[in-house]
Amino acid sequence: MSPASERAPAKVNLYLHVTGRRPDGYHELDSLVVFAGAGDVLHHTAAPDLSLALCGGEAEALAAEPDNLVLRAARLLAGAAGVPARGALRLEKHLPVASGIGGGSADAAAALRLLNRCWGLRWPEERLLPLAAQLGADVPVCLSGRAARMSGIGEVLAPAPVLPSAGLVLANPRRPLSTPAVFRARGMVGFSAPAALPAGWGDAATMARDLGTCGNDLEPPALRLCPEVGMVLTALRAAPNCLLARMSGSGATCFGLFPDAATAATVAAGLPAAWWRWGGGFTAGVSSLYSAAEPAGA
Ligand SMILES: C[C@@](CO)(OP(=O)(O)O)[C@H](O)COP(=O)(O)OP(=O)(O)OC[C@H]1O[C@@H](n2ccc(N)nc2=O)[C@H](O)[C@@H]1O
Ligand SMILES: Nc1ncnc2c1ncn2[C@@H]1O[C@H](COP(=O)(O)OP(=O)(O)O)[C@@H](O)[C@H]1O
Hints:
Elements: E1 5-21, E2 27-45, E3 50-55, H1 69-81, E4 87-92, H2 103-118, H3 125-135, H4 139-144, E5 148-151, E6 156-159, E7 167-172, H5 179-185, H6 204-211, H7 219-225, H8 228-238, E8 244-247, E9 254-258, H9 261-270, E10 276-281
Parallel strand pairs: 3-4
Antiparallel strand pairs: 1-2, 2-4, 2-5, 5-6, 7-9, 7-10, 8-9
Helix pairs in contact: 1-2, 1-3
């Protein structure tokens, strides 16, 4: 990746427990978040003013978006750093919009990393995290792009258990789902306890067995709003060697876990062409971030 580009990988919630609700209406969560090889890409070219151009297969869904998260992130960082917001940005949009895999959050996080570098700020991750949290509950976890155990409303991050190599299929029935609408549709049901997880897994089958004891508490309301989620889950579960299939985030994208990336790619290619689908493996992290030990301007 060129120094003037940043990957914005898709976030996948391998499980998602709603553990409480704050007085301000936000929900407390417990989730194991991993990142997929699929993602958007953000590019920067020096320019006196700030602008954003969109390209890529999923760009059309954002054409009417009045307040792209990339521009919000750029303005927020410029304001916090006291520098002019400048640069011609180009977003290659490959992830479906409003689909439970955090594309907008990943783009916002990529903008923070990219402009931190292109504007010569060299802020460490810890200094960018409060800005990320202001942009959305999922943006802090997307900042490092590292697998994490996420709690609070998304801002409390702890290392994930050691993950095995595994295959991952993502499939979306091409129905956008609004995150607030899915939380609302959950209604007055009770809360789940945080999951009990081991320190790590040696293979994909053991990981899938343990994750099978968890769930996604947003899956039932999402299924009511978007019955196609059920078709996607059925197709994933019917695929040979599927170890686990579940919805990610507030949907409608579902994931399937498979023994390896090659199997996942084959399965994805066999899913209905009318769906958005992708198959591969987890990604290890994006980090072009600076460590706190590194002096600014170094
Ligand atoms: C549900 C999750 C799980 O990872 O993923 P997605 O389905 O969006 O991918 C996230 O918590 C989404 O994070 P994000 O999409 O950044 O949410 P925000 O923009 O901050 O919030 C949008 C709305 O979702 C609801 N919301 C979000 C996060 C949270 N912990 N509790 C909530 O109740 C609130 O109604 C809020 O107004
Ligand atoms: N760069 C962006 N990519 C996606 N959505 C964006 C972006 N900027 C703003 N949005 C808005 O954020 C909403 C949530 O988008 P997204 O992050 O794709 O959802 P999800 O977290 O459910 O996958 C969209 O409906 C759109 O209105």
